UniProtKB/TrEMBL annotation:
Coiled-coil region(s): none
Record's protein name: CinA family protein
Domain of life: Bacteria
Domain called CinA C-terminal: residue spans: 2-144
Length: 151
């Protein structure tokens, strides 16, 4: 995360997150880096569907049509949280860490999205790690993806 924070600082960019699957792990990892207060605007943990709707403003129609484990939900989470936090970038995380199926979708299916001035970049992962290892891996991968998005 040190390289992400350094890059954000060097580009004078701010970041926020909207996290379901990761329950705040991404923002906590950023906050662990000295100087993170210069780039981290804030984060939402939207573990329950009604919080996604009421706080992150994910449209009920998206959840009803595609489910919370979907690219569409990840995109709405990132777009609306970026607006809410007034950040340059927002990263969202939603998926099924397992162990069983959810919404008829297999464990290990994850969707993330970066929203920024360059538009949306959406990621779909199919991972087969134990629950918490999967969450850590997604945080790591998305930190790398944010660096690539910025560059």
């Amino acid at each position: 995360m040190e390289s992400l924070v350094a890059l954000l600082k060097s580009r004078n960019l701010t970041i926020s997150s909207c996290e379901s699957l990761t329950a705040g792990m991404f923002s906590a990892a950023i906050a662990a880096v000295p100087g993170a207060s210069g780039v981290l605007q804030g984060a939402l943990v939207t573990y329950q569907n009604h919080i996604k709707e009421e706080v992150a403003h994910v449209e009920k129609e998206i959840i009803d049509t595609y489910g919370v484990i979907s690219a569409q939900c990840a995109q709405a989470m990132a777009i609306h949280t970026r607006e809410l936090m007034h950040s340059d970038l927002c990263v969202s995380f939603t998926g099924n860490a397992g162990p069983g199926c959810m919404e008829g979708k297999e464990a290990g299916l994850v969707y993330c999205c970066i929203a920024g001035e360059k538009g949306l970049k959406t990621y779909e992962f199919h991972l087969s790690y134990e629950r918490n290892r999967l969450r850590e891996e997604v945080v790591k991968r998305m930190a790398e993806n944010v660096i690539s998005y910025i560059k």
